[in-house]
Amino acid sequence: MWTCKNLWKKLAPLARSSSTLCRQNARGVLLNNERRLPLVPQAHMSSGTPGSGGDNNLYYLLVGATCVGGGFYAYRTIKGDKERYQERINEIASRPNKVVPEQPITEAPGEQAAETPQEIAPVTEDAPVETPEVTPIVEVAAVEQEDPPTTPEAEIAPESVVEPAPEESVGTPDADPVVKSEEAVEQPSAQALIEPSVEPSPVEVTEEPPAPIVKSEPTPVAGSLPAETAEPQTTTETESAAEPATVAPAEVPAPTPVEFPSHAPYLLIGGGTASFAAARSIRARDPGARVLIITDEPDLPYMRPPLSKELWFSDDPSVVDTLRFKQWNGKERSIYFQPPSFYVSPQDLEKVENGGVAVLTGKKVVHMDVRGNKVTLSDDTEISYDKCLIATGGIPRNLQVIERAGEEVTKRTTLFRKVEDFKALDKVSRDTKSITIIGGGFLGSELACALGRRSADSDLEVIQMFPEKGNMGKVLPEYLSNWTTAKVKSEGVAVITEALVKAVSFKDGKVEIKLKDGRVVKTDHIVAAVGLEPSVELAKSAGLEVDSDFGGFRVNAELQARSNIWVAGDAACFYDIRLGRRRVEHHDHAVVSGRLAGENMTGANKPYWHQSMFWSDLGPDVGYEAIGIVDSSLPTVGVFAKATAKDTPKAATEKSGTGIRSESETEGTASSPVASSTPEPPPVLEQKDNYGKGVIFYLRDKVVVGIILWNVFNRMPVARKIIKDGEEHADLNEVAKLFNIHDD
Q1: Using one digit for the tens of pLDDT, what is the confidence trace for 586-605?
Q2: Hey, what long-range contacts does 337-344 have (CB within 8 A, 24 or more apart)?
Q3: Facing residues of 512 across strands?
Q4: Any alpha helices (H) in 286-398, and if so which ranges?
Q5: Are strands 636-641 and 553-554 parallel, antiparallel or unpaired?
Q6: How far apart are CA 495 and CA 493, in angstroms?
Q7: Which strand ranges, in their side-by-side order, compose the sheet holding 501-507?
């Protein structure tokens, strides 16, 4: 604006005189012609300062020109600043410590010019040398030369190339003499120091291939280099011969070979029963399928029920190592579904002609990218997939009082779930004097009976405590729960009912458990069997819905959580068409849901109609199978009869030929319930104390929603059909006849 004002001061007199001259000429013309000119509006040009009034076109023109000029100047200034900024960035990028990628190097005596004299001192001078040139992998240790010291930033790391600042000089002929014992090695390379190069550098970069490797050099290097330079010398001779020494920072370890495929058409997360059932189902429908199972356990897929049942009753002292056991029928088998020869190695999965099943053990999936169809492992490795099954199962719950009790209590507590837990508890049972089991459900009662029977041959004290009035008090009606408690006590177990744990501590070499009623229990070891928490850690990263009531991933009728993602086993919260939304934590459900998920992953699109069952054995003499909703808070009707020698789990497995009863019963079918026409003896009343065998019906709105077969085996298809029909029954005694409980 000041420029415009000054310019106006110079031009104003000219404009003023021009305006005056125009008016005088007009007046002269009027007088000479003796007539008036037509009156037209005169455009007055103000000769005053801007804003003094009037239309000042010249002023506006000058102001506009000034604005345009200022804008152009600003544009040129900003553009110039950007160019100078980019030049500065390029200059900074060309300073020392810049790695030259993909360019082999040939070592010369001047390579060590960037090293300080302190690094030369520990180098031994008797390293054997076979060739006049030294491998780039061991360049720091194989050849040492004393040159003028430089700054620490210019130190040469193994397998890296550094560009110096422009002011640094390299390769001058007046460098310090080399170590005498290595003159023969460095003399042929002395010419390289004075040869011109594109950029001055302490390391001569040439286009020649790397020199052959001296086999005897890596050993003295590790012992003579300082700690920060000796650590990266892990590259093998084969790798160094195949690649130029261009790995950037010295602290980056050498890459390890890939041990598993980067892509799996069928990816199964979890190595339990559901995953194996799905893999077998996929291969049955698609014989050429390539299936990859990822499990964080070190073991191949195995069945969990024997861990709390048959394995404890084995007479084989090496059962902990072999994990083979005798079933109740006397037949021997392994807990593993298939031997190692059944599987293909993960690195060969993409190569095998007819596909196969590979198991990647000891790896955990920590992140899922459902849009990119890939997962990330705990070691940051990514594996892509076409279709994925989540069968992560669950993790055992623990009591908060135990978690807060400290390390001494925690390391004396077992959360029973895996093979390693079985092995640890087996060792504890042989080395300690007392074990306390907290929990009165299926797992707690099974372990109590197993350890109680073992205590008969040793001085082991087994204690079981739970808040209910009897064993399995949340499942069985009270009278049957009391009978079960008496059965557990007869196995040598000290049962403490209605026990609520208040605090746990470690005193005088013992774990001290304080109950809310004031009782105190001292023991050597605790087994917490208080339930299972579904493993849903992947829900957040995958964006999958978790059920707020039952836990687990919510899935549709086809066990699908999202496109190309299915869930099976303990982690699946599915909708039961008869009983509503549920989540089941039993072996049979894992088998059936895994099988169905595998079929749907191959395009079957089948809904989940199956009513899964579960079973529990209190030793070889007492066992039961259950289906549906079995909750002691529901009304129940029990029909019992006198048991015979064939009404035991042992006899049932001898007849069926399998110890895992769900593997045989899931294939069975049942006809419509029709009562037997032959006369039957009257049922045994519930009040009697001898519950040898029988059927317990659980009712909701007068409809049977759950059934327990007590020492009645191989009748599960009948029970499944009764629940599926969903009808009211006026006389459940007649319905009980369908199970042939009165047959001898």
Answers
A1: 999 999 999 999 999 999 99
A2: 337/273, 337/276, 337/300, 337/301, 337/302, 337/303, 338/276, 338/300, 338/301, 340/300, 343/300
A3: 505, 522
A4: 319-322
A5: unpaired
A6: 6
A7: 501-507, 510-515, 520-523
